[in-house]
Amino acid sequence: MSMKKLLLSSALLALLAACSTVPPESGVAPPAPSVGQAENLVEQPLRVPDLGSMRDTKPRVLAGKFQQTSWSALPGWQSDDLHLVWKAFVNNCKGLMRPVSGSLALPARATPRVWQPVCAAVLQSGIAVGNPDTAQVRQFLQTHLQPWRLLDPAGHPAKSLVTGYYEPLIHASRTRQGAYQWPLYAAPADLLTVDLGAVYPELAGKRVRGKLVGNRVVPYDTRAQIVSSPTQPPVIVWANDPVDAFFLQIQGSGRAELPGGEVVRLAYADHNGRPYASIGKWLADKGFMPLSQASMQNIKAWAKSNPGRVQEMLNANPAMVFFREEDIVDPELGPKGAYGLPLIGERSVAVDTTFVPLGAPLFLSTQYPASKNPLQRLVFAQDTGAAIRGAARTDFYWGFGDDAGAQAGRMKQQGEMWVLWPKQGGAPSAR
User: Fold this and answer.
1) Could you tell me the pLDDT band of residue 285, with boundaries at 50, 70 and 90?
2) What is the CATH number of the domain that holds 153?
3) Nearest CA to 398 among 70, 162, 117?
4) Position 329 in a domain
């Protein structure tokens, strides 16, 4: 390596370290930007191209290993209620049938050509999407798919942490007035995203955020710098509670109810690239409350008792998430995940795509939050997260609202998974 290239590599890595992806309070990362986010795939009919017309790209090497097994080896498979699974499976096929770009900067996706025969069989199945016969659904899945147990790199059955996330609801206004004093921003015009893999293949998938100062790219502003700047990013809405607004950023997306009753979705757009810092830890370090008691409810109570120090508390976290507004077409569906499809409560998960490609149906075996009661069901790998790293590491999407939030907040279980793959497609693969 030349000295010039070495110095440039060092500079990029330094910027990478300064602009690391934002991990949230719960350990859940905001969803990554997706391919074709503007597409409303779920509103379109399933279209399956001819196999010969489907573009293929170079295979992506997955870090995990897979062991072929039987449906009977899946714990709780026969008791899983598949009533809502078929609609999710059809929508997932719509994502699977999109062409792949081959870009190493994007998360790995399940190989489309392998899934073409299965998605074609979906069209020929005659199973109703709205009210399917669950026995037919189960038979279809068992006929066309093969379970593969996910192993860790050492070849042992992979077991890892299962956390939860959800879509919160906040109260907000389009104008700054009364209690509505806490801004939620759109992405600023001067925010730059640098794809390091475009320069150095060994840094594929690594992106940094920054801004141009003169002829230099420097790390983007911290939260404190953004809120104190005379030229702030565009404000989408003003929230009436600073902690609610903060936790919406942690989840990465949410819904905002406006004074007239209209509800809009604030979907993840980007972030400032600064490392996340826990405001709960800040409160504990300052002696305001034990870390074990730093729940959302207790943080909100402290904020109400200490209004003059709220911004100081928020600024302890230099990370800032930016949003874009989206219409809510179907209240039952969540925000779009990294796969570009709306998340489905209790059926969508975030995974580490170095082990499991986006778009793969999975069977997850874990427990309900703070319980030993089994939670065993078919789910879909449709999202990613900066904190979701390792074989079988999973983030379970609980859906929308307070009940979902309560479940997500308590979810810290161990789990294992099986990848459900087309029978004629060999072991799971990615592009």
Assistant:
1) very high
2) 2.40.40.10
3) 162
4) no
The DSSP line for 301-362 is HHHHH-GGGHHHHHHTS---EEEEEE--S-TTEEEE-TTSSEEETTTEEEE-TTTS-BT-EE
Q: In whole angstroms, give the CA distance from residue 393 to residue 78.
A: 24
d(CA 282, CA 294): 10
In the chain, the largest separation of any two C-alpha atoms, in whole Å, equals: 65
What would the DSSP string read from start to end of 68-116?
E--GGGSTTGGG---TTHHHHHHHHHHHHTSPP---TTSPPBB-HHHHH
> Over the stretch 85-126, which tens digit does the pLDDT of each residue have?
999 999 999 999 999 888 887 899 999 999 999 999 999 999
Task: Give, in order, the Cα–Cα distances in Å from 228 to each of 12, 237, 305, 307, 393.
Answer: 28, 18, 23, 17, 38
pLDDT at 413 over 60: yes
Question: Is the residue at 57 inside a domain?
Answer: yes
| Rounded Cα gap, residues 338 and 62, in angstroms | 18
Whether the predicted pLDDT of 29 surpasses 90 = no
Contact 219, 210 (CB under 8 A): yes
pTM of the model: 0.83
pLDDT(235) > 70? yes
C-alpha span between 334 and 398 (Å, rounded): 10
Instruction: Tell me which residue of 332, 366, 338 sits closest to 353, measured CA to CA.
Output: 338
Does residue 213 fall inside a structural domain? no
Cα angle: 106, vertex 111, 112; to 5 degrees = 105
Domain with 381, as residue range(s), is 41-165+335-425
pLDDT-based confidence at 205, cuts 50/70/90?
low
Helices (H) and strands (E) in the chain, counts: 10, 19
- Predicted pLDDT of residue 231: 92
pLDDT of residue 288: 97
- Which of these, 374, 373, 417, 422, lies nearest to 395 by C-alpha position? 417
> Stretch 30-51: mean pLDDT, rounded?
69
**How many structural domains compose the chain?**
1
pLDDT in tens, 356-391: 999 999 999 999 999 999 999 999 999 998 789 999
Q: Determine, yes or no, domain membership for 352.
A: yes
CA-CA distance, 302 to 243, in Å (whole number)? 10
AA letter at 318 = P
